[in-house]
Amino acid sequence: MTTFPPAPPPIVVRGKPQFSPALAEFVYAAERRKGADPRAIAAGLARVRAAAGGLPFAPRRDPAALARAILAEPDLAHQQRKPIPHEKDLIERFFDWLDSILNKLFSGLRKATNLSVGASRSLLLALLALASFGAIAVLIAIVKRRVERRIGPLALARIGEDAAATPAQLVIAARARAERGDYATAIGLIFAAAVRALDERGIVEYDAARTPGEYRRAVRRSQTPSADAFDALTRGFVLAMYGTDATDALDWAGALAAYERLSV
Amino acid sequence: MIRYVRALRPGDIIVLAIVAVALIVAGLAGATRAEKPPYVDTYSTHDGDRGGFLALRRLLEREGVHVSESNRHPRFLNADRLLLSKLSSYGKVDVDELRDFVAKRGKTLVILGVEGIAGYARRTLRLPNEASGPDGPATYDARPIVASPLIAGVSRVVGDGTLRFGHESFPAAVPLVAEAAGAVISTYTVGRGRIIAIADPTIFTNRLLGKADNAQLAVSLLGA
């Protein structure tokens, strides 16, 4: 007679009653199969007998205690701890906040437009993309303007120092600066134009190392009728370049008039 | 462009440097988070993390089992028992050698985990059909089905894997430990030798080895 061990007691997993199967269930499943072979089932039971015998049941130490001791070893213990809940850093919090704002926008837009989730999301993304492009364009314009304000005098200074620049070119550059409200630079350029014009007429040779006062005295010594006009222009130039008061349109008009008198 | 760069003042450069540093820090922080690998069960005897078998190896060694690793083909193995946790990576030739290792040389092959094993290996090694557990990856309790020295001293086994051997796998394979969804461990003979197939190897991972009678099972099953 073959005897089987009794079925294990029922166990409860996650609140639902479940039962460990007995060997009888496996035998029953085998018998129910289509075309079940009784001889194969009998052979299976013979295998059960083989599995249940043959090897001695040797008494052993308590492996569970040993396993716990092994798991408590330093290189294993820290790995077995339950993972610490991840604390969000500042960047993650920022993106979470951004996400919540976007979600609010999505839901608000959906309610307002009665659009589907996908359509409202697409619409809002398009609007956000446009706004982003606009903001970037404004930023670029501001930076460009700031930099150009700094580059402008440098460029003009280069024009003024350029020995090949003609008086006419310098006057054009000066008018352009005056139109943009940069009267001090404009007066500087018109003074440079006057110096070049005097050189072209052979009154005073151009020398970039000369000071405005030296130029004025040189022109005065040449006894040219333009000396008064050049005096006025030099005075305006010195005030515009080195004075503390802001240069205005009136100063520019005076300098331009002096230059025109000089050219006559 | 050079004109614009030259026109930058020290204040502008400082602001740009701060922005660049902030971007780099943010990028590095994101990269650090991205580099952190997701947790996986490796079933490696070198892995001390929760899904490794390092504790299992030490347990067997301290129970007096001679444990060694070998890259030799099974044909040349000088061992009585071979534990495999990566059978899915074996090719046809290797599988044939494994069959000969068991069937012709009368050795024992323990297959730790049957997920992803190809059809040829299944047929050649006569692996029982799998059945998914109803509770997915949730923790389950399994009990011994038959009295056997292979599971001596074991009354309860805990695992959290999803695979079992279906009830219909009997009579070809004898279920040793099972729960309601099917057998967790089955054994059967191939030729002169024996195969012990463990559907769910999570029972021997570092995170579960100390639970229930899993350690006792490891010693009885793998150390006999």
Most extensive interface, chain pair and sizes? A-B, 57 and 66 residues
**How is the quaternary structure best described?**
heterodimer
The named CATH superfamily of the largest domain in chain B = Class I glutamine amidotransferase (GATase) domain
Portion in strands of chain A: under 5%
Instruction: Compute the number of helices of chain B.
Output: 6
Helix share, percent of chain B: 25-40%
Mean pLDDT of chain A: 78
What CATH calls the topology of the largest domain in chain B is Rossmann fold
Count of alpha/pi helices of chain A: 11
Number of strands of chain A: 2
Sequence of strands across the biggest β-sheet of chain B? 1-2-9-8-7-4-5
Summarize the structure in words.
The complex is a heterodimer of chains A (264) and B (224). Chain A has 264 residues and is mainly α. Among the domains of chain A are: 105-147; 162-263, no CATH class. Helices cover 69% and strands 2% of the residues of chain A. Chain A has helices spanning 23-32, 38-52, 63-71, 74-80, 90-113, 117-161, 167-179, 183-200, 212-221, 227-242, 249-263; strands at 11-13, 16-18. In chain A, helix 6 (117-161) packs parallel to helix 8. Chain A is rod-shaped, with a radius of gyration of 48 Å. Mean pLDDT of chain A is 78; it is low at 7-17. Chain B is elongated and about 85 Å long. Chain B is α+β, with helices and mostly antiparallel strands and 224 residues long. Chain B starts with a helix and ends with a helix. The mean pLDDT of chain B is 82. Chain B is built from six helices and nine strands; from the N terminus they run H-H-H-E-H-E-H-E-E-E-E-E-E-E-H. In chain B, strands 1-2-9-8-7-4-5 form a seven-stranded mixed β-sheet, with helices on both faces. A two-stranded antiparallel sheet of chain B has the order 3-6. At the A-B interface, helix 1, helix 2, helix 3, helix 4 and helix 6 of A face helix 2, helix 3, strand 4, strand 7 and strand 8 of B.
